[in-house]
Write a structure and sequence with these properties.
By secondary structure, the protein is an alpha/beta fold. It folds into four domains: 98 residues; 163 residues, Rossmann fold (3-Layer(aba) Sandwich), CATH 3.40.50; 99 residues, Roll (Luciferase, domain 3); 132 residues, GMP Synthetase, Chain A, domain 3 (2-Layer Sandwich), CATH 3.30.300. The protein is 41% helix and 20% strand. It has 22 helices and 30 strands. The strands form six sheets. An eight-stranded mixed beta sheet has the order 2-1-11-10-12-13-14-15. Strand 21 and strand 22 form a beta hairpin. Helix 2 packs across helix 3. The longest helix is centred in the first third of the chain and has 43 residues. The protein is globular and about 115 Å long. It is found in: Cell membrane. One of its GO terms (molecular function) is long-chain fatty acid-CoA ligase activity. One of its GO terms (cellular component) is endoplasmic reticulum membrane.
Length: 701
Amino acid sequence: FDTNNHDTLLFFTMLILSLNFTAAAALTDVIPSTCFSYESSHSLKQTLRPTQQNPHLQHSPFCSRASHFSVQALKREREVTMEIYISIILASLLIIPFALKTFSPYVWMDIVYFGDLVRILVKFVARRRRRPLFFVLDRFLEQTEAHPDNTFIVFENESYTYACTDKRSNKIANALQSHAGYKGGDTVALFMGNEPTFLFTWLALAKLGSPVALLNHNIRTKSLLHCFNCCKAKVLIAAAELKEAVEDVLPSLIEQGVTVLLMSKNSDTPGIQSFSDEVEKASDDPIPRSFRSHITFKSPAVYIYTSGTTGLPKAAVVNQNRILTALAVLSSNGVVSSDVFYLNLPLYHTAGFVVGFIGTIETGSTIILKRKFSASQFWDDCRKHNVTVIQYIGEVMRYLCCAPKKDNDKDHKVRLAIGNGIRAEIWKEFLNRFGNIQIREFYASTEGNVGFLNYVGKIGAIGRVHFFHQKLFPYTLVKYDTERDEPVRDANGLCIESRKGEPGLLVSKITNLAPFSGYAQNEEQTERKRLHNVLKKGDLYFNTGDLMRIDKDNFIYFQDRVGDTFRWKGENVATTEVSDILTICDCLKEANVYGVQVPGHEGRIGMAAVTLKKEVQFDGRKIYNHVVSCLPSYARPRFIRMQSTVEVTGTFKQMKVKLVEMGFDPGRIQDPLYILDDNAKSYVPLTAQIYHAIISGSTKL
């Protein structure tokens, strides 16, 4: 029966209780009529004791019959007692869930969710027993064998079954392994937008045992070359529409001996080879398992780029074991094979690739793949494809809520939304407008070793803290000094744990069960994420860079990011990278980049406090052209503040706290302020009128 229905649960509880107690009473009534009461059996034991002590009496007929009668009586007494105990246990098993759901619902949900995790763990262990080296690809092949004709991917006017997806990936794998520029096991960089070929290619490379670097298709020139180099890729596979971006870095790639393959039927650029024609000619025969026999659980599966605390994008190493655990993300949230999953987040991100794509491989669900997010098309797509599960970041939900209201806003089949970064007020507004959709907010990071899931549905929380989680994956919140940009330590040099209700830096212990693989070719940044001597001398923790707060009910809430990173439009922006790009411009001397809050928007928007070189005037058009050509839209500073000098600390670190507090209000700031204007293609003066238009929401950012 449905344990989520209180009335149904109560009815069945009372019914079974009545039946059990009636049966127990009936059985108990047998005891006196057959002299099986405790008193009679006790007296019989006393009577028989002399016969047991005198061996001559044991052979008399009376003693034999009495002994037989006593054994049967004691046996029947034990049976009846056991039946009563079983009845009480069964009744308790029904009463306890009802009592917990009524008087302590959060504890009940903890137990239910823990049960789900145990179920998933048992399934995982069973797979390991059948095949010790079981990877994500093996799960895909299982699904293909079991459901070859089920639809796996729907993209625009095309649809692909599991069998078709398998054959497409086989063709790419066969074409690549016979290519002179590829060697088995080579790391391959994938430079594509959201399209089925992205997924086919990853599966192909998994079949060949090659790690894959998922390049952000928005990055260009210096950032693109850096991302490619830090994973030591030998091959670059790019989409046809990204040919110009590849040509910008082609001389460096040729110098390094990199094989560049373009997913097109022809290429007129020397050094860039067309690859689509080779794929079409290739066989779709399965790839032998021997091609990936060298793979272990510690082998890198993908490199996913993140903008950590400082510097250029870093390649987080996601090994085979880590990506295998991602199979459980959707299934642990109740996603099943009959669900239709709407995937419009970038596939180069952890959210889109790991949670979305990898998660659906486990559940066997259908993916509705979109090139990018569109608020105007979102619900129409959901209705057209009968979508039941959607994925979001905070900005997605806000964009949906900001779209013009329609009479059919609640006319859809979406039952579940999975994601992270939704604000409490947007959460409420979303539910009120679009209906009773279960929202599963979670917290995780690409390289991190700790995560939370709000399986309770508590608005505003990112998850729930409980005993089992903390024992398996030890973590804590420690006090953090935002001025010094470091954890607060006591006289012994150890971190100080935050109390409940106080914000603190989330740190997670690095263990065999919760490892931190670090960043490829970047030991310095890897070490910066390690925190030593946290609770005792010699321990080692992962520094998430996130401030959290735990309330009295053990719900955990995201507070803010620390350090030199802010988040805008769902993307992490590293201020050091943006500063480096800005100072390349020949009119700027220094740039201190930080994020400022804008009412009604998630995260923080980019702002830069800059100084000019000597005898140079501010040139808004030149700076605009520079940032547009070098930075993706989410990383471009929307506001510029002119300063005579950039304030630094005693250790020569740029000071950001006061700048962040002052924001971009021309009423508070005496320095000249400018705003990026796409219409004028320049940075133009930020007036009070423009400022108030932004604050009121009439001007969009």
